[in-house]
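Many introductory courses stop at the sequence. We go one step further.
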Amino acid sequence: MRGRSTAELPREVGVLAVVAFVVALGFGIVAPAIPLFASSFGVGTTAVGLAVSAFALFRFVSAFGGGRLVEVLGERTVLAAGLAMVAVTTGLAGLATSFPVFLWLRAAGGVGSAMFTVAALALLLRVAPPTARGRAAATYQGGFILGGIAGPAAGGLLTTLSPRLPFFLYAGALLAAGAVALVLLRSPSQEAADTAAAGAPDLAEGPVPLRAALRSRAYVAALVANLGIGWVLFGVRNSLVPLYVTEELGRTAAWAGAGLLAGSAAQALGLLRSGRLADTWGRRPSLVLGASVGTVAMSVLVLPPSTGAFLLSMAGYGLAASLLASVPAALVGDVSPARGGRVVAVFQMAADLGAVVGPLVAGWLTDVASYQVAFAVSTAVVGAGLVAALALPRR
């Protein structure tokens, strides 16, 4: 079945992609400043690591509650409130004069981030027509990717001027994104008036119960694939890969940056086609392809160390991630096309769980065994997504 063209995607998709770009850009700007600012309080390395992980931890534990808020208050309200919460806590964190205050503000920011992420994805999947959910998810992810590429470069420069400056800029960017969302995203009454014309599910339709979603092989496959994305893309790739390049390959940190850039560039290019592939070729073959390429790409790192193999692995996994970041989200929309806050929240929690646990497990395996063992386990996690994809019905 042929879906709509990209130009016919609902307006909300473009708005959410712009908001995602601003959020990712700001996060990339502030990321280099967090450990430096935390260490300025005279705390040790463990405390600095806690300041980095507190945001992700509280984002994970509060996501389910954010999903419930989406079902009660609606996506637009929760999205704007989440962005405002992260903006306020980030700005105050830049003014913090003690480490405990800075730590708790970072943790509160994680709660706001969970609210925004769950609400944005729930809205995206609800307004996108069934034949365009893959393209909608790819467009949304594209905003994150472009912002994530541009942000760290600017953040490193700003941090050299002042470690507090990135926090204020990020807060301002989030307030601007929240204002854009409130102005350009349609109100519930407008959505109800346009539902029939857009082909989206009726707003009055209730959310799919989480227990019912968990009985769906499509939803389980989406969870397993998203766990792998969090484990490798948001976890191991950022924590273990730079150390692997400097310690195992004997290269400079610039080579690690080149590998990460190759992966991001390949993912950005892949997103131009991955969404359309998911909508026209089908969810199952697209997910099987993405999981297969991702598994092979990660397995390359299990081989004896080689700079060329490393760059090939990063580019290959980036290409796979373009499918693994859009197809599972489309599957979630297929399972729960209405206002499925908790269904979307658990889906997001799968990626966050991988991002938190993946670096810990991979780091421990590297210490007690080797980098190759750590990458082998990461390959198995991605491979589990392939097994789940193969178990999907062919229709």
